Amino acid sequence: MFRNNKSRMRGFSLRAFQTRMNAVWFNGGMSDVQADCLSGFTAAYLIYNNVLGRHVPVSWLAYILATTYHETAATMEPIEEYGKGVGRPYGEPDPETGQIYDGRGYVQLTWKDNYQKAQDEVVDFRTMKHDVPLVAQPDLAMTPWVAAQVAIVGMAEGWFTGKKLSDYLTDTMTDYVNARRIINGTDKAQTIAAYAIEVEDALHLAHGDGIARSVVRDGSSGDDVRELQLMLALSPDGISGPDTVNAVMLFQAANLLQVDGVCGKDTWAALDREIYGL
Fold first, then answer.
1. How far is residue 88's CA from residue 175's CA, in Å, rounded to a whole number?
2. pLDDT of 36-47, one tens digit each?
3. What average pLDDT does the chain have?
4. 64: which residues sit within 8 A by CB, 6+ positions away?
5. 132-159 burial code (b ≥16 CB/10 A, e <16)
6. Is there a domain that residue 248 lies in?
7. Which residues contact 75 (CB under 8 A, 6 or more apart)?
8. Within this chain, do residues 242 and 122 fall inside the same structural domain, yes or no?
9. DSSP assignment of 123-182, as one string?
10. pLDDT tier at 129 (50, 70, 90 boundaries)?
11. Residue 124 lies inside a defined structural domain of this protein
12. What pTM was estimated for this model as a whole?
């Protein structure tokens, strides 16, 4: 269930969010499909909170995106159920609409009643109205901005297993492991929980909260190095070598920082201001 949110959310840097996620999840090679998925979810997140007054906490979006990453095998592409429901009652053409209401989306939406339920909840971002004809055109559930809303609302309201986000993620509790019960028991629960923590960090960064990053120097490696390289328009191989050190020194000189080629707290903060606008 959504809580009423009367206050507007703090600013959000989509560039910060996508760059951090590109480094952590996609090895610096995020595709257009993956970027569209992240954009669809963040658009829904910001519109729900700032325009529609439907409170979606950071932890909810973090877990929904972690689930999407797992369910789509990291492609972040909405998928249609293999076989289109053949052999299942919902795999038969509906006598009224002629449509088949098999599974579609990031989290599979099935049955006509559930498409109707989703139609009553999904908002067209151009009109801000519930006028997306999912029952007449169920393939719309495959578009990123619709699939994102189905995942958000469905997991918030317990459409899939009866369990919902507020059962595990509240102001006083963050249980990413047991939140897996919203979709599929405890299958891969620890793995998806780890993904959610990575998204939560990226969301906090995008909101300007700052996150803990390692000190990057010559020879450093990992996701923080890859993010730094993306910020400095370098090849994101995740290993800090001469090119990375030289780029850091140029940035430091241009921003009146100590020029040592080491990206520590002060250099990270300056990068966040200059690159992300935070």
1. 34
2. 999 999 999 999
3. 94
4. 41, 151, 152, 155, 165
5. bebbeebebbbbbbbbbbbbbbbbbeeb
6. yes
7. 33, 34
8. no
9. -BTTTTBS---TTT-GGGGGSHHHHHHHHHHHHHHTTTTS--GGGTBSSS-B-TTGGGGG
10. very high
11. yes
12. 0.92
Whether residues 105 and 230 share a domain: the answer is no
Residues 139 and 241 in one domain: no
Contact 66, 199 (CB under 8 A): yes
Q: Residues 201-213: pLDDT tens digits? A: 999 999 999 899 9
Q: Which two tokens stand for residue 234?
A: 């370098």
Provide, rounded to the nearest whole percent, the portion of the chain with pLDDT above 70.
96
Output the domain CATH number for residue 185: 1.10.530
Examine residue 214 and state whether it is found in any structural domain, yes or no: no
| Residues 184 and 227 both lie in one domain | no
Q: Is a pLDDT exceeding 70 seen at residue 92?
A: yes
Place of tokens 């909405």: 78
One domain, residues 118 and 43? yes
